[in-house]
Structure formats: C-alpha cells, structure tokens
Amino acid sequence: MRIGFIGLGTMGAPMARNLLEAGFEVGVHNRTRAKEEPLADAGASRAASPADAASGAEVVVTIVSDTPDVEAVLFGDGGVAEAISDDAVVVDMSTISPDATRSFAERIRLVDAPVSGGSEGAEQGTLTIMVGGDADDVGRVRPVLEAMGSKITHVGPSGAGQAAKAVNQVIIAGVFQAVAEGMALGMASGLDMDKVLEAIGAGAARSWVLENRARNMLENRYPLGFRVSLHHKDLRIALEAARRAGVELPVTAMVAKVEQGLVADGFGDEDMSAIARALRR
Amino acid sequence: MRIGFIGLGTMGAPMARNLLEAGFEVGVHNRTRAKEEPLADAGASRAASPADAASGAEVVVTIVSDTPDVEAVLFGDGGVAEAISDDAVVVDMSTISPDATRSFAERIRLVDAPVSGGSEGAEQGTLTIMVGGDADDVGRVRPVLEAMGSKITHVGPSGAGQAAKAVNQVIIAGVFQAVAEGMALGMASGLDMDKVLEAIGAGAARSWVLENRARNMLENRYPLGFRVSLHHKDLRIALEAARRAGVELPVTAMVAKVEQGLVADGFGDEDMSAIARALRR
Fold it and tell me: DSSP code of A246?
C-alpha cells in the first residue's frame, strides 16, 4: 500500500519511520523540506508538496500543528485535495478542532485520528489513537494505524476522535496540576519525597503523571515529553469545544493560563510538567 | 499482643475486625458505645473509656474524625494518657494536623499512621499506611499495621505520616476534578463515553480515579467510597499545612470550596466523586 505522509515533526518523523519498517511504501513531505532527508535515507520517497504526496496514494496521513495548518495542507495551493484519488482516505493525526474536522470531512474523505503517548510512544509505535469517522474508512486505514499505535479505538463519527482527544488533554491538564500541587506541598513540608512517592504511588493518588512526571517536578528539570506550547494549543481547542458545548472547566482554564505564562516566559519548549514551576517558592 | 482500639467508624470497625482475625487480643471503645457490640460478638472485649482500652495494652490504635477528637481521646478525661503504660505505643491512624501530631508526640509515645484506600481497603486489609515516628516504635507496631494494610511505608519522623497523607489528599483532589472536567466535556460533546474511557484509559490520562470513579460521574450516582465531608476536612488540614509552609495550592483550594458547597447542599455523605455535580449543566 502506498501512503502519503505529511508532517515530519517530533511526532510525525518517528511515525513515518514505523510505517516504513512495517513495509509500507511511503512518500513524505514536510514544509521544511530538509526534514525529509533522514526519512529518504530510510527508504521513503520525497514529495515536493502535499498534492505530490497524495498523488497515487491510497492513504494520506497528516500530522501538523494546528487547525489552520491542516486546512492549508488539505485545501491550500498544492494541497492534498488537488491530487488525491476519489477512493483514497486522509487520516488526520494532528490535534485540531472537532468542529473544523467535521467541516473538512464534508469536503474530503477524512478520518480523524489524533494520538496520545508523546514522542516515546511515537518512536516505539505504542501510541494511543482515538479515531473518528465512517466505519468503512476506519476499517481501511486500520492496518496503517496499527503500525504506529498499540491502542486504536474507533470512538464514533467524524470529529469524535478529536473530541475524545480534547477530553484526554483536559484530564491530563488537571492531573499534572494535581501532582504539581502535591509535590510542592511535600517539598515545602520537608518530606523525603522518595518515601512519599513509594507510599502513595499504589493507592488512590496513582496516575501515569505521578509515575512518569513527578520526578521532573521534584528535580525542577523538564525534558520532553510533551511540549507546554503544544498542550496549551490543545487546551485552547478543548476550551473552545467546552464553550460551544456549554460546560465550564475551571481547572482546565487555570492550567491553560499557567501554560500561557510559561510560553511567555520562554518555557514553551519544556515538557508540560513544567507547570510545576508556577508553584515553586 | 493486647491492643486497645478506639474509634469504630466506617474505617475503624473493619480495621479492628482484621486485627481480631489476625489473632490479636483487642479491647474496643467507641464514643457511641453500641458500635462496640458487633466487634464484641466477633471476639473483642469492650472498654468503657479510652483509658480503659489503653490499660494493659501494648499498642493503642486511635482512628477518629479530626484533630480535637484525637486530643480528647488521648489527653481528655478518661483519656489514653491516664492509663497507658510507659512502654506502650499509640498508633494514631486518624487524618489530622501534622503540627498537632508533633505536639502530641511530645506528650505521649506516638506513631502517626494515617491511611488511604477507603472503606474497601479497610475491609480487605489492603490499606496504604503512611507512617511517621521513631524507627523503634514503628518497628514495634509494624505487625499490627500489617494486619490492616498491604502497603506500609515509614516516611520519616513524627508528623511525616500526616504530612504525606496531606500530599496524597491534595493530589486526589486535583485528579478527581480533572476526571470530572473530562467527563463533563465528553458528555456535553455527545461522545460514547464507554469508547472514550477505553481509548484514553491506558495512556497518559490513566489514574486510579479514572478507573474507579469516572463511571459514578457519568451515571451521576455517588455511592461510598470516601465521604465528601471527610475529604473536605482533610483538605482543610492540607491547606493549613500549605499556608504554614508558604505554598499556594490553587486547585486544592478550589476543590475544597466545591466540597464545602456540596456539604452545604446536603451531599456531604456522598462519595467525593460527587464533585462532578458542580460541572453538570
């Protein structure tokens, strides 16, 4: 199967590599074209534009930063829509607006399939993939998704993958803040935090964040992981979806403000566990 | 070994029962004395006062509601201090102020050993127990703790168990709120939440709360679990400790306000997953 792959960032590059390793024929395109080179060395062909990547492909994967980027890649000059065949399916793995996704899906055959699991998950092919779209289309792209993720769930119709991702990012926001507050109190109380983590890590306070990111907060070092700036973008999407749905998410809104401050202070490229910075004395 | 056991509430009663089943000789006392009867049927002796429970005991366990209750049980009229032998150790398993704990420990041989794991953990003997105090005292009471819990961690000196419990309750507050916000957004977005939980439950959003309490929030039913009113009391202690330590815990403070509202509205005896009520449209 021939796949067009557009977007070779921190997530996209290792995901495209996993497609190559799974035996797919992959044509890659990236706005900064130099990023195509390592993939070409690994066996990919290079495409001069999104349209070029889509030409002759059965599946086109897009994973770019934000809603306008997806719109440009699909429908802009030299975009996917110019060259894609009628029976090919676009799989958008970016995290973008559920509403925009639904409107794009009216113009092109589209499955939304945002991911969770960070750069580690992208490299190891163990991403969680939340899928929205027509069941037949989802079935056709499933072998492609299985080369990149270990947990692939068809959540519902078009936009449902993005809506589920918004739920995921909202929960993650609050859990990071919860763990940050706990670590701040423990350090300020003079506790041996190794002992505390041992004591509480198996009980009701247990979480992925506590297991994998509490140490960053205690050491005040925030290697990636998942960028503050990208999570902030995701929360903007989630808060907009919440506003439209008529629900208030007070902690999510607060964490979005904290992240906005981190970005303004130059910490946007740190892991989002850096929200603990705001609580340090 | 003879144990005096004071406080036969939702947590204390099954904990005392586990001590009996482990073969300890247990003398029980409860302010509302009728609660002693089921334990007496199970083989405990009944004590007319905390002093009576402490008389002749090698270990005295207290598990009552709040700091003033512990003070009264230990140092009030008919209190433990009147009758306890010099080499006996008090194990206070209540959740109370770390500072008050340290001052009590100057007056009586005291180990602080608050628990996490709820009524299920108390019944099954699988509590997480966070222990503060002198290493020799902790070593002496460890067999008693092992009959009630499956995860016993000596965190540090007197008060450290209570301080670790405060950290635990702070983290739990934020994680419950995080999951509540995620469920609110998902429901308002019209998602199939079974699919969403399946999709996100194994990734970075994973937590004990998501696994064990999200369903309550989706169904708007809040069986115990852990009482809102008790968690609210624990957050009061944690926020006071934070104030003294000079750290701000904004989400913890917000959840404490939500819980205060729930108590005022008559929901204080529900499980703390009821904080999701505040987000329902």
Answer: T
Predicted complex ipTM: 0.95
Residues of B with a known catalytic role: 165
B116 interaction partners in chain A (CB closer than 8 Å): 200, 203-205
C-alpha distance from B142 to closest chain A C-alpha (Å): 15
Chain A residues in contact with B166 (beta carbon < 8 A) = 185, 189
| Cβ neighbours of A117 in B, within 8 Å | 203-204
- Average pLDDT of the segment spanning B21-39: 98
Buried b (16+ CB within 10 A) or exposed e, B98-119: bbbbbebbeebbbbbbbbbbbb
Q: How far lies B67's CA from each of A45, A223, A236, B63, B268, in Å?
A: 70, 41, 43, 11, 19
Within an 8 Å CB–CB cutoff, is residue B135 touching chain A?
Answer: no
CB atoms within 10 A of CB A256: 21
CB of B216 less than 8 A from some CB of A = no
Q: Do B175 and A172 touch (CB under 8 A)?
A: no
Cα–Cα distance for residue pair A114/A91, rounded to 1 Å? 9
Candidates B171, B257, B280: best to mutate against A (most CBs of A within 10 A) is: B171
What one-letter code names the amino acid at A200? I
Nearest chain A Cα distance for residue B13, angstroms: 21
pTM of the predicted model over 0.90 = yes
Question: Block means of pLDDT (10 residues each) for chain A, length 281 residues?
Answer: 96 98 98 98 98 98 97 98 97 98 98 93 96 98 98 98 98 98 98 97 94 97 93 97 96 98 97 96 68
pLDDT tens column, B221-236: 999 888 999 999 999 9
Ramachandran class of A115: left when φ > 0, alpha when ψ lies in -120 to 50, beta otherwise: beta
Length of chain A: 281
Q: For residue B57, what are its two tokens?
A: 């005991």
pLDDT digits (tens, 9 = 90+) for A46-56: 999 999 999 99
Task: Give pLDDT tens digits for A6-63.
Answer: 999 999 999 999 999 999 999 999 999 999 999 999 999 999 999 999 999 999 999 9
- Give the Cα separation of B142 and B138 in Å (integer): 6
User: Is A195 considered catalytic here?
Assistant: no
SS3 label, residue B75: helix
C-alpha distances out from residue A250 to A170, A244, B125, B186, B234, Å: 10, 15, 37, 15, 22
DSSP sequence for A85-113? -TT-EEEE-S---HHHHHHHHTTS-EEE-
User: What sign does the CA torsion over A12, A13, A16, A17 have?
Assistant: negative
Q: Residues of A numbered 144-183 whose beta carbons fall under 8 angstroms of chain B's beta carbons: which are they?
A: 151, 153-156, 160, 163-164, 166-168, 170-175, 177-179, 181-183
The reply to whether residue B191 touches residue A160, judged by beta carbons under 8 angstroms, is yes
Q: Which domains does chain B have, with CATH numbers?
A: 2-158 (3.40.50.720), 163-280 (1.10.1040.10)
Contact A25, A2 (CB under 8 A): yes
CB pairs under 8 A between A and B: 254
